[in-house]
User: Fold this.
Amino acid sequence: MTHTLDYTLLHSLIEKYFDATSSLDEERTLRQMLADPAYQSDEADEARAVMSISVVAPAPQIAVRPRRKAIFHPLAAAASVAVLLALGITMITYSGSHDPDLDCMAYIGGKRIESRAAVMSIVSSDLDALGEVQQETADDIVGQLSEFSSLFNDI
Assistant:
């Protein structure tokens, strides 16, 4: 099958595409023309590169679902747990070696807290919050793995 190459139309459609004035039908026509390896010019090559059109074979269309944004990144949760564990181990190791009132201290809002009971209460509430975040992260990961599983089952 022979057809006449229409470089005037091709270059007109390329210009409209780059000026963002082309209609959907014009863009569809341009894509079809650029997919034809018979059209060879610097402008056609530039448009192919920008539109990601291969003259060898068209790329398969893959449905992509938008990713859900994680509330708290798992690595950040792991790092927080590691810091709190190190702090806890240090506190347990040195708890009996000095004045008991100076074993623990914390700063909240620039105010120094030296009461062991108050500091341990703060640490406990922080560990509870990290546990909740860890559970939310685990639930999110399980949800994402379930989505992947359903995608692979559909294939």
Q: What stands out?
A: The longest strand covers residues 106-108.
